[in-house]
């Protein structure tokens, strides 16, 4: 009896394996279709934006002055462009098509230039798009809005009172003070070397660590106090600065006012991409370390390390068996395949519906209103409401008094006669 069943069992198990293999092939190769890609990257290598008073290396030591993309930075973004071309060769169908691609940059030289050199690597003209045989380049538009109107990429947004309040709360929080404590003595020694007096971590990052970092990359001799140990501590303080801007205290609420704005825009684009009428395949955002980290803090996938030059946050939308999935990657090293990022609470290939639910808490409903809702305003609002009630109470009493006794004032003195 058992022996008779064996061939049946074998056949069944073979059939099952075959089916599993087929469905695997089906999932991996046939059915999973890339529909839409979003890239958010940092500009390439640049000169410092500013520096500390005692720095012997002044702005004039940099060929293009402060804050400009260097040739190394151009190389980095050309490389990233070539990588994107390789990664999406089939998806983008060779050459540039205006309706498929949209690029937006912050309105700053280095991010605009990074986007342009990236596009030179991504879309060299081919076939009919070659317009000058001796120039392997074609113009591709890079969109921007002025910094004062940039409510998408130029993070962290400053004109937001509630965010300012949250930042102040963060600096007072025990968690932040705990993380800062080991560096207290070190911070006190800094002004004698730098000539720059500040308690502000963001200042130490942008005015001390960053210029020294740029100078070391460009083979300038650092001041003798800028030892390896000093640089390490400055780097840690800079990382703490980013973390304290976007997180440590009330990260979700801060994200609504910062990176959540970009998450919202990306979700909107993804949802448009699920529509049959959609032609757009790729949206690229050229921005800053504070943009990449702000986005990743809103998505809660930030690794806490300062985003390197030309690092790129990748979001891919796939269609598989009628359902949409979001996959995220972080290309922060040229020598390493992009690191997969998993939205907390989801799986690496996260259903779009689930993704939308999970990020809902960081999507602002009305950014401006949420920014104006500071706790001081809330107190003021309560005070005003109480005052309003009191005043209306008094008015009502007055009105009743008037109605009750008022008519006597108007009595015709002769009527009773
Ligand atoms: C690429 O474009 C060509 C010509 O427009 C078209 O025939 C081909 O099907 C396209 N391939 C893909 C993968 O979209
Ligand atoms: C700094 O010096 C190293 C070693 O000589 C060299 O490989 C590198 O290209 C230099 N960096 C820059 C930005 O010039
Ligand atoms: C890149 O990201 C990975 C994953 O978070 C991290 O382990 C690695 O140290 C990062 N590399 C750089 C250069 O930031």
UniProtKB/TrEMBL annotation:
GO terms for cellular component: extracellular space; filopodium; plasma membrane; vesicle membrane
Keywords carried by this UniProt record: Disulfide bond, Glycoprotein, Hydrolase, Membrane, Signal, Transmembrane, Transmembrane helix
PROSITE patterns referenced in this protein's UniProt entry, alphabetically: HIS_ACID_PHOSPHAT_1, HIS_ACID_PHOSPHAT_2
Pfam families: His_Phos_2
Parts of the chain that traverse the membrane: 379-403
Catalyzed reaction equations: a phosphate monoester + H2O = an alcohol + phosphate
Signal peptide annotation: none
Annotated PANTHER family: ACID PHOSPHATASE-RELATED, PROSTATIC ACID PHOSPHATASE
Protein family according to the UniProt entry: Belongs to the histidine acid phosphatase family.
Protein's recorded name: acid phosphatase
Source species of the chain: Mustela putorius furo
């Amino acid at each position: 009896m058992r022996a008779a069943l064996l061939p049946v069992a074998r056949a069944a198990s073979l059939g099952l394996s075959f089916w599993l293999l087929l469905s695997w092939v089906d999932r991996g190769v046939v059915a999973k279709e890339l529909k839409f890609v979003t890239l958010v990257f940092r500009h390439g290598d640049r000169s410092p934006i500013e520096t500390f008073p005692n720095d012997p290396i002044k702005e004039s030591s940099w060929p293009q002055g402060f804050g400009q993309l260097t040739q190394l930075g151009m190389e980095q973004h050309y490389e990233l462009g070539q990588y994107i071309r390789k990664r999406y060769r089939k998806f983008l169908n060779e050459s540039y098509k205006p309706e498929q691609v949209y690029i937006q940059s912050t309105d700053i030289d280095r991010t605009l230039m990074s986007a342009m050199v990236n596009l030179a690597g991504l879309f060299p003209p081919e076939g009919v798009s070659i317009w000058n045989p001796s120039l392997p380049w074609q113009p591709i538009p890079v969109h921007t809005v002025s910094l004062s109107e940039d409510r998408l990429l130029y993070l962290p947004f400053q004109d937001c009172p509630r965010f300012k309040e949250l930042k102040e709360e963060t600096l007072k929080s025990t968690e932040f003070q705990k993380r800062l404590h080991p560096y207290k003595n070190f911070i006190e020694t800094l002004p004698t070397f730098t000539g720059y007096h500040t308690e502000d971590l963001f200042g130490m990052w942008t005015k001390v660590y960053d210029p020294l970092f740029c100078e070391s990359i460009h083979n300038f001799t650092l001041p003798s106090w800028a030892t390896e140990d000093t640089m390490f501590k400055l780097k840690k303080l800079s990382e703490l600065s980013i973390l304290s801007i976007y997180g440590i205290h009330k990260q979700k609420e801060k994200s609504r006012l910062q990176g959540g704005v970009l998450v919202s825009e990306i979700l909107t684009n993804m949802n448009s991409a699920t529509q049959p009428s959609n032609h757009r395949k790729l949206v690229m955002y050229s921005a800053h370390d504070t943009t990449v980290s702000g986005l990743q803090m809103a998505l809660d996938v930030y690794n806490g390390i300062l985003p390197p030059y030309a690092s790129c946050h990748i979001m891919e939308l796939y269609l598989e068996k009628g359902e949409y999935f979001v996959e995220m990657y972080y290309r922060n090293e040229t020598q390493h395949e992009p690191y997969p990022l998993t939205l907390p609470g989801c799986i690496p290939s996260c259903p779009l519906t689930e993704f939308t639910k999970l990020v809902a808490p960081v999507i602002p409903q009305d950014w401006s209103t949420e920014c104006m809702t500071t706790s001081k305003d809330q107190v003021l609002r309560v005070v005003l409401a109480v005052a309003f009630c009191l005043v209306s109470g008094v008015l009502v009493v007055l009105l009743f008094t008037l109605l009750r006794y008022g008519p006597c004032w108007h009595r015709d003195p002769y009527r009773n006669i």
